[in-house]
Design brief:
The active site is at residues 52, 127, 151. InterPro entries: Amidase, Amidase_CS, Amidase_dom, AS_sf, GatA. This protein is of the alpha/beta class. 37% of the residues lie in helices and 14% in strands. β7, α7 and β8 form a beta-alpha-beta unit. Bound molecules: glutamine.
């Protein structure tokens, strides 16, 4: 029934929302039939899901929203997909994103512009805009996204849903098409915190295919959702409520803090003095990693190949020029430049040093506090097209989510009010591998 409902809803609204790139209707229905009367003890059995199109799914087209992979059918499942399949989750389809996860609006997709279900003139955020919109529009109860600099939390915030970026190393990246390997994490987007905790429980854990996953038991996050946050110590960085943060976001956080105080938590203002270097360091580091990761799309092994090249150089050049969109090319050029000899020390190395300082800022705070709280984004969703000519402003607006990736910490966005009919999000950041506390606070608040 759930699968039928989900497919029906997609038929009803996806013409307008445009969250899905591929709907695997037949297979989903077949799998649902096979489950009838056969459901094991998995709480997620029979639940339909939308999967971001940079997570590889065996025999199911995986495009990264790029012309480069328009007709790419993977021959294996990502680890998270194996885990979801094992839990009898039913993949309904693949959802839209910014091309190769580079962007904040889902407008860089080579195929379609996804709309914000709360107001179709606005973007759903990005890069996991399809994942957030599909959940917000009631097309699927949950989706998976990926977050390199905010791509789960920012669209969750823009679409009024719950999005979790786990600690770096918590969830396997095997089968996630890499953007910036030292920052990427997969995580769940859901309507509420409990559902989110169930999905993370299912996808987390050590994986022999990803040596950056960590051998730590995955707690039963749902059992920690007691509603009790008495004595919890909250840090609120002044940089997260200061310059560049819109009034609506600031006020929403201040009233959220009142709610949390009412539940027995206390908060104090702190400082993340190096967070001002986060955005520039992030763009240097993520673009450098992207320039290396995306070298594999050469028109030879897989993906788009230019027709009738004259020679090998032309094959590479034309396949990449024709296959990649503008934003991807910009990042590859920036990354290649930053890594080139003579510039490496000035850019890449400096950015790595800033990254260490940003992480240390958080380490210092977490010696005294349990969580860090602030807005997820400085503003609500942008109008469609608003950011296309103003990329620097768009990049700068990621200032609240990016430091969390640079430090490898877990962070969640939960809905915390509206302004002018558009949702706002509250960001709760935890200690490394302490998703448990992040979920407990988010659940007590929602
Ligand atoms: N918006 C950021 C960027 O454009 C983050 C993207 C992401 O997290 N994948 O790089």
């Amino acid at each position: 029934d759930l699968v039928d409902q989900s497919i029906k809803r997609i038929h009803e609204v996806d013409d307008q929302v445009k969250a899905f790139l591929t709907v695997d209707e037949e297979n989903a229905q077949k799998k649902a039939k096979a489950l009838d009367g056969q459901v094991g003890d998995s709480i997620l059995a029979g639940i339909p899901a939308g999967i971001k199109d940079n997570i590889v799914t065996k025999n199911l087209r995986t495009t990264c929203a790029s012309k480069m992979l328009e007709n790419f059918d993977p021959i294996y499942d990502a680890t998270v997909m194996e885990k979801l399949n094992g839990a009898q989750v039913i993949t309904i389809g693949k959802v839209n994103m910014d091309e190769f996860a580079m962007g904040s609006t889902t407008e860089t997709s080579a195929f379609q512009v996804t709309k914000n279900p709360w107001n179709l003139d606005f973007v759903p955020g990005g890069s996991s805009g399809g994942s957030a919109a599909a959940v917000a529009a009631g097309q699927v109860p949950f989706s998976l996204g990926s977050d390199t600099g905010g791509s789960i939390r920012q669209p969750a915030s823009f679409c009024g849903v719950v999005g979790m970026k786990p600690t770096y190393g918590r969830v396997s990246r095997y089968g996630l098409v890499a953007f910036a390997s030292s920052l990427d994490q997969i995580g769940p987007i859901t309507k509420n915190v409990e559902d989110n905790a169930y999905v993370l429980q299912a996808i987390a854990g050590l994986d022999e295919h990803d040596s950056t996953t960590v051998d730590k038991t995955v707690p039963k996050y749902t059992e920690g959702l007691t509603g009790d946050i008495k004595g919890l110590k909250i840090a609120v960085p002044k940089e997260y409520l200061g310059e560049g943060i819109g009034q609506a976001s600031r006020e929403a956080v201040l009233s959220a803090l009142k709610v949390l105080e009412g539940l027995g938590a206390t908060w104090e203002e702190v400082s993340l003095p190096h967070s001002k270097y986060a955005v520039s360091s992030y763009f240097l580091l993520s673009s450098s990693e992207a320039s290396a990761n995306l070298a594999r799309f050469d028109g030879v092994r897989y993906g788009y190949r230019t027709p009738n090249p004259e020679n090998l150089m032309e094959l590479y050049k034309k396949s990449r020029s024709e296959g990649f969109g503008d934003e991807v090319k910009r990042r590859i050029m920036l990354g290649t430049y930053a890594l080139s000899s003579g510039f490496y020390d000035a850019y890449y190395k400096k950015a790595q040093q800033a990254r260490t300082l940003i992480k240390q800022d958080f380490d210092n705070i977490f010696e005294k506090y349990d969580v860090v709280i602030g807005p997820t984004t400085p503003t609500p969703a942008y109008k469609i097209g608003e950011m296309l000519d103003d990329l620097v402003t768009m990049y700068a607006r990621d200032l609240l989510t990016i430091p969390v990736n640079l430090a490898g910490l877990p962070g969640i966005s939960v809905p915390c009010g509206f302004t002018e009919g558009l949702p706002l999000g509250l960001q709760i950041i935890g200690k490394h591998f302490d998703e448990q506390t992040v979920y407990r606070v988010a659940h007590a608040f929602e």
